[in-house]
Hints:
Blueprint lengths: L2 H12 L12 H12 L16 H16 L3 E4 L5 E5 L8 E7 L12 H17 L7 E6 L12 H7 L4 H5 L9 H7 L4 H5 L8 E9 L4 H5 L3 E7 L1 E10 L3 E2 L11 H14 L9 E10 L5 E2 L2 E10 L2 H22 L2 E9 L3 E2 L2 H12 L7 E4 L4 H5 L5 E6 L15 H18 L2
Helix pairs in contact: 1-2, 2-4, 4-14, 10-11, 12-14
Amino acid sequence: MTDFPKRFYQRLLLDYDHKLNVEGINGKRLAERLAKLAGIGLTPNNGSSRMGFSEEERKAKKLVKEWMKEAGLEVREDGAGNVFGRLEGKENDSPVVMSGSHLDTVPNGGHFDGTLGVLLALEVVAAWKEKGYQPTKPYEVVIFTDEEGSRFNGGLSGSGAMVGEVIREEQLKLIDVFGNSFEQVLEEAGLTVDGYLSAKRNLKEIAAFVEVHIEQGKQLEKENLPVGVVTGIAGPCWIEVSFLGIAGHAGNTPMNDRSDALTAASQFILQVETLPSKVSPSAVATVGKVHVHPNGVNVIPGKVTLCVDIRDIHKETRDLLVDKITESAKQVASDRGISVEITENFRITPVPISIQMQGKVMKAVENHVRSSHLSPSGAGHDAMIVGRHLPIAMVFVRSKGGISHNPMEWTSLNDCVIAARVLKDLVEDLTM
């Protein structure tokens, strides 16, 4: 190992409790694999940069494919670049249980997001091999291509292709951050448009999909729990709101004779903060982007455009929150005697996880942890795409400080191994 992967490996093992190595799960093996992948696409400040369809993503996949073969998996890659490692079951004609995640990262991201889900899915197979265990149903470890979307500002490309949620005309319109067409990017990756579109799987072949992912939040840390049960994956709705006032001289316009778009926007932003709790405990709304026009120190703002990110794991309450926020914008504008323009940029359907699947995860978690913590996922995942078509389950693993998409991202090896044991129990239940 080079210097950073070696230090990363040593840090993982520094406070590791080797008593967690049971039933074939091996923390040292997991640490070695996390460290080796951390060295692929390493940035100057020790982050990870493996953009979707990049050479770095392919190199990471190649390494994991070698580990899949060592574990006895039959490995194949589809036209979207998704990698599948299959373990035959005793009843091999049964639908397969699938688990995994992705290996691509955001620019200068961390070393656990996505990667951990792939390696834990593989660790289950390695443990089975050591113990001579064969599941009743077949099992597949999957690496989905381009989950993060850094290439085309979209993401979930591989899982979308697998379930058939891609439209040829729309894909061919895509231009990446370097100015290359979708077709060019595929060709550079050794893929084709026709191959990408043919990656659609017969979903009757799949019984369920399980994804383990770092929490990217602080709830498990606050509860002092290593793992948690995900109740659903929030679907975002983005609306763009423009308050239209009248620009004027900051010195010569009296305070009682202004049409200030920024004060209206400010009032609206404060109202947005209060609305989610009125519709759902899992709903959130964020104003994270604001443009002020003309943006002069001595000019009353004549126009303010802002974007609101609205999310919940339940479609009904998410849509109700969108309506309440929209009405709030209109009411603020009316009260202040200015106009407002509202545009919906996109709306993605949330994916709740069934009570039955939550129960199976809870049972597996409580085999290893004192209690279960239930929480929604505010971020999108490959499980969100797959969950529109198939039963899914998700397990969260504690994130230090809730930090993610950052070189400081960290999950202890103890927590990783506990998550591996939970996943093993869960998959054994699902493959019975």
